[in-house]
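Progress report, Aim 2. The chain analyzed during this reporting quarter is listed below.
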Amino acid sequence: MKKTFYGLALMFLFVGSINAQKKKKPIELLDKNLSHFEKWIGVPHTSVKDLPDGTFQADIVTQGTPLGLNNDLKNIFTTTSENGEVILNISGEIYGCISTKENYSNYHLSTLFRWGDKKWAPRLNAKRDTGILYHSYGDHGRFWKTWKTALEYQVQEQDLGDFIPLGGNTATPKVGEPVVEIRGDFSKVKKFDPNSETYSSGNGYIQAASEHDAPHGEWNLLEIYVVGNDAVHVVNGEIVMVVENAMNPENGKPLTEGQIQIQSEAAECYYKQMVLTPIKKFPRFIRKQVRFK
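Predicted structure tokens for the chain:
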């Protein structure tokens, strides 16, 4: 009998935890001052102009000295208001993130997202890219001098909802039987197969089961449902990935909480209506489609 779930078992390190959802009410994460977040700005590319003398810049932006905490010299993360709504504007000019000040567990994160037009080095010839990092932990910049260790809901052109174990974790995930796909550049990728009958060992980037991107410049509805140490990625109403049985490899306990980070990764983009709603169980439409192991 074929399984109809999307599965991914994963083990990660997590240190420290605060439940910030004491009132059990929806949290509007975006306001004009980004008061729920702090900013971390990574290493500027050598092409970035108008930085103070002596600022470290590099062609390889994953190495060197980052600008650091709340030092957004180029206004990578700003907000505007449109029809009474707060819009998060991410220029993308320097790698970085905004990171929630609190940790969250058992929630539904919902946001609208769209691409802008600008692209920056070192990804001028690559797909537009950003991402939502959840269950984030550890020091700022521990991965690529830019992000914390996390589970990633990938936000990339034609790759919404893909999964990346971000941060160089040593755990080995078990994924639904991958499909070997040959791309135009002859590279092989693992693409999650929702109809898999078995689990098989796998690591790294896992592609979503299907693609549901809106046309460039239009808003997409991105959602993450988290209950305990399981999570479901939803794109424009369609389930595309399930992250299952996330564990802390250091103490063997479930990984259930963490900060939320929104990435800047060399592409202009926008977020709005970012709401985190506490939940106790997955909604019915997920329970009907997903069978957790």
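The radius of gyration is 18 Å. Residues 1-20, 168-188, 198-202 have pLDDT under 50 and may be disordered. These observations will guide the mutagenesis work planned for the next reporting period.
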